[in-house]
Amino acid sequence: MAEAGDENLYAAARDIARALGKDPSAAGDILQILSGYGASGNRGGDPRPTASRGGSNVNLDRALNSLERQISSYIVADRPIWSDPVDSRTFLDSVDELISIAGDLRSMAGDKSVAVCQSRADELIQQVMFRLQEEFGFVMDRAPDSFDSDDEFSGEEDNDTSDGVIVARPITDYKIVIEALQSSVIGDLNAIAVRMVAGGYAKECSRAYSSRRREFLEESLSRLHLRGLSMEEVQETPWQDLEDEIDRWIKAVTLVFRVFFPSERLLCDRVFSDLPVSSVTDLSFMEVCRGTTTQLLNFADAIALGSRLPERLFKVVDLYEAMQDLIPKMETLFSDRYCLPLRHEAIAIHKRLGEAIRGIFMELENLIRRDPPKTAFPGGGIHPITRYVMNYLRAACKSRQSLEQILDQTGNESGSDTRPLSVQIVWVLELLESNLEGKKRTYRDPALCFLFMMNNDKYILDKAKDNELGLILGEDWIVKHAAKLRQYHSNYRRSSWNQVVGLLRTEGPYPKLIENLRLFKAQFDEVCKTQSQWVVTDGQLREELRSSVAGIVSPAYSNFIRRLKESPEINGRRGEPFIPYTVEDVEFRIKGLFKESSR
After folding, report:
1. Is the dihedral of CA 584, 588, 590, 591 positive or negative?
2. Single Gene Ontology BP term (predicted)?
3. Any domain includes 524
4. pTM of the prediction?
5. Total domain count for the chain?
6. Closest Cα partner for 108 from 68, 168, 48?
């Protein structure tokens, strides 16, 4: 039994020697500490000295003295402990022993005889934790020195470094994972983190970690050329400049949430693995991501709260759709209680962007209403408001799915009288046509009124055909407006040419025919002169109108000349009556009607 006891005693001595490391002055203390195990030297119980064993507070005091000498030699050292693997392992063993003894002392907190020892242990733990916090930072800061970009950053070569911070280049492969730290470095960080959490310094450890990872994200984000505008600066920046910033923002936010943040989450999980609680991991991840997330969201929020000018619609839709695509990723990444406010804020800003889009789209109606007829548009051509509205609607319909969702959701949530996208677009077109009806009244010539409406309706119809806008409006709308266009055509021809052609169809004696020919020439010349300055932009419509006019004027003129020549009253007279135009001359003049554009 004695031999067994001796073996146990020597085993205990080896354990303590390993904890105390290489300090030779501790040899005498080891024998004193071992006396606290009792005569049997039984290691079946707790090998650490406690006050309950023989009531020996001296043993606890001596154990703390030994640990303090061992640990203090590292705490006061000028060089980093983790610059030497042997030193770091020895130091961690000593820290483990200190934390364990401190735990035993706290379990005997009611015993006043151990109060002094407990106070000393707590003070020593505080010094240790401060040094571990410094070492944690040292290990993270030295990581770039041994970082191999080709091995650790799959799919991206030659990453830049700036002031010792690894900075990822912009990428397009969103399946990539940035492994910013080597496995050995992660192992060292995890070893320190485990001790800091055990010593009650979880927040300090998290702070040391997150401050350096934030720097990585900030530097990486700066390489994407975001200007980091405040909300006030966004409001003051010209929209043309903001359009470029929005393009950069979309690229940045996609990269951040698909590459940077998932990589940071993976790194957090590895650094803070094997901890008794997951809150340190979640807190650290939130602290790493919060600044970058807030910066990105503030920009989107500033855009959402900005002006409702119609031309802003398309870029705001781009912002909305980018966030829409990333919301599921945000919900996954920001699922814990620390990140929950960030997720809620992202969803709220996404909703505000939707409200902004609805407001901007509604503002199009006000723009049409505020465009009153002032002066006649030269030549009856396509009015700028028609071009603007139709190109606007056609471009907007490329985001049909998003607009339908926005008009649906924002209307239902606000309880307002909202209209589906198709109804909204029809309503905008009705406002446009009503506006054009008002503008046509600025023309004194009825024929030019109809030509103006024909030009604009043809443009509207063409823009609505064979694209998403036409699908939204439906075939019935297309058929209805094609019929309206034919009616304008008929009205133009009747108001402009019926009176002229009527002169050629009048029956009467020879002098009456001669008078009608003179009147026809005068009116025909006047109409051709006037309408040669009218505008028909669409080449097909221009040819259709000329052909239509020629189709009624040429036959009538040909018949009139034939009747005039066959009149019995010219028999016996010398020569034929003066005929100003041949049929070919008339047709040539008709081909000169209308021009393509007006300055």
Report:
1. positive
2. cell wall modification
3. yes
4. 0.77
5. 3
6. 48
